[in-house]
Amino acid sequence: ARRTLSPPRYNLGRVFYHGLLGQRANRRNARLLFEKAAKRREKCAQAALGYMYEKGEGRCEGDLKTDYNHAKRYYGMAANQGCERSAFNLGHLFEKGLVITENDVVRYALAKQWYERAEALGYARAE
């Protein structure tokens, strides 16, 4: 099997997100690059978008509202591809009631499910 390097759009998105290599941090450009990479099923980009939406960095600059439903969507995409941290973050969203569920029983069951998935994938914080 051929091993590939991290996808270029995701890496360039990281450059803009963190302000690396002499670039100023630009969350809008980072988000746009992560979105392009996420459409190509790049789990790291999906996880990054989940984080940006959870923390209120996913929308255009100046609009810092959080969007937990978008965070859930992107974390779910990444977790279903084996991203352990995204599985953990999904558990957190459910545990804290940041996404809507039928009731608390369902909410805690989903939180437990995602924490267990994170642990099974090897995420140490989930243990």
Could you name the key traits of this structure?
61% helix; Serine Threonine Protein Phosphatase 5, Tetratricopeptide repeat; 127 residues; single chain; mainly alpha; 6 helices
Count of beta strands: 0
Helix and strand content put the structural class at: mainly alpha
Distance between the termini: 32 Å
| Name of the top-level CATH class of one domain | Mainly Alpha
**Fraction in helix:** 55-70%
What's the main sheet like? none
Describe the secondary structure blueprint for this structure.
Elements: H1 8-18, H2 27-39, H3 43-55, H4 68-79, H5 84-95, H6 104-120
Helix pairs in contact: 1-2, 2-3, 3-4, 4-5, 5-6
InterPro entries: Sel1-like, Sel1_AlgK, TPR-like_helical_dom_sf
Organism: Aureococcus anophagefferens (Harmful bloom alga)
Protein name: Sel1 repeat family protein
How does this structure look, described?
This protein has a domain at 41-126: Serine Threonine Protein Phosphatase 5, Tetratricopeptide repeat (Alpha Horseshoe). It is 61% helix and 0% strand. It has 6 helices and no strands. It has helices spanning 8-18, 27-39, 43-55, 68-79, 84-95, 104-120. It is globular, with a radius of gyration of 15 Å.
Sum this structure up briefly.
It comes from Aureococcus anophagefferens (Harmful bloom alga). By secondary structure, this protein is mainly α.
